[in-house]
Design goal:
Length: 280
Amino acid sequence: MRNNKNNTTRELRLGINIDHVATIRNARGGLHPDPLRAAHLAIAAGADGVTAHLREDRRHISDSDIARLKRELTRPLNLEMAATDEMLAIAVKHVPNACCLVPERRQERTTEGGLDVAGGGRRLKRVVSALKDAGIRVSLFIEPDPATIEASVALGADIVELHTGRYCDLALEGRPKSIAEEVKRLAQAAKFADAAGLEVHAGHGLTYNTVAAVAAMPQIVELNIGHFLIGEAIFGGLGQAVSHMGKLMREARAASDEALAESAFKPSKASPAAPKRSRV
């Protein structure tokens, strides 16, 4: 049970994005390697859920992949999708556990930033409402920005997934001051979103070297990681990669819990007010 008013330990889940298993398959055609098989291996190694992004151009995951994943998975399916009528129809047909709405451009190699929630207007509101009416949890992939979080609450989202791409890029560049600032921004956004009643996820670009700082944020309950783990699977197998990532996440969360327990005996400064969801 979520509790925004104390330091109760929360489970930290690992979602595995299997898009790039399909990328390798599609490079040559045929059926191998099979994304569904990868999903089963990831779950056997400790993954709590599976993420797949059905793009407009079908560059990796296909419609048949989504149908098979929904039919055969033993863990929740998170469907990443653009907020279009085509994708809405597919989501309502298959009813995944959750849909994460993401920005999408044909010319991009991967998702390059967070969703423009405030600028989405009635179109985005319509898609969110239709997904919720179908019994699908709605997540918005956003930048760690308070105004965007407020807009997500107003839109009726259940979840926000904080974009960690900038943090991971800074880590690759080796810029300690900028890294610290971005980690602080992510942590503040996580607190703000949690206080507003949103479930908080995070992801994009996370690796063994960068996951700990994000996993340590107690408000975050799920990390979605894909490209890095599929790459690591080449060297040591997917099961080993998923298992090791889960271990690093648990260690970071345990250390965070210890720090929270210690801080409970010290006075703390009041946090800035966050928007409250209307309970209707």
